[in-house]
Design a protein that fits this description.
mainly alpha; 6 helices; 0% strand
């Protein structure tokens, strides 16, 4: 599965809480080595750590994210149910009862967990940073004296020459 991992090389772990990042890195290692059951278990731990970090109310939000992913990607019912059960079934024996986790299920699980982490942490942090920058430039532009060119928050400054 090594080739399938190339799209995780640029994953932005710096936005994740330490425990979530640790579990997801371990999950990726299992995925890389084609240890699909270990990968599934680490994905479950990653999602549980996310819920622990964000609070129990996040569980419903994550349910919705997984459902939306399945709809957007047109994931079949069997694969959706397997991914949902792997991530959210509180009974640890459900991983054992899930039987063999095929490559397709593992691939959907990988993209699902990546999207969950992106939606819960990365998107939020990047948007906050961008808005903070825009507000700064907007306040600078508002404080410019009339007749003095300001820095537009929507354009890059050009050279002075």
């Amino acid at each position: 599965m090594h080739n399938d991992l190339s799209n995780t090389d640029n994953f932005q772990f710096s936005y994740l809480p330490e425990q979530v990042a640790t579990y997801f890195k371990d999950a990726l290692g299992c995925f890389h080595d084609d240890h699909r059951h270990a990968f599934a278990a680490m994905c479950r731990l990653t999602v549980q750590a996310t819920i622990n970090d964000l609070g129990d109310s996040a569980r419903l939000k994550l349910f919705d994210i997984v459902k939306e992913i399945a709809e957007i990607a047109e994931v079949d019912d069997r694969t959706y149910r397997a991914v949902h059960d792997i991530l959210f079934d509180a009974d640890s024996s459900s991983l054992y009862q899930a039987g063999t986790i095929d490559r397709e299920t593992a691939a959907v699980l990988l993209e699902t967990v990546k999207d969950i982490l992106h939606q819960c942490y990365i998107r939020r942090a990047v948007l906050r940073q961008k808005l903070k920058m825009r507000r700064f430039f907007a306040s600078q532009s508002d404080s410019d004296t009339p007749g003095t060119p300001g820095v537009s928050p929507f354009k890059r400054p050009t050279g002075t020459g």
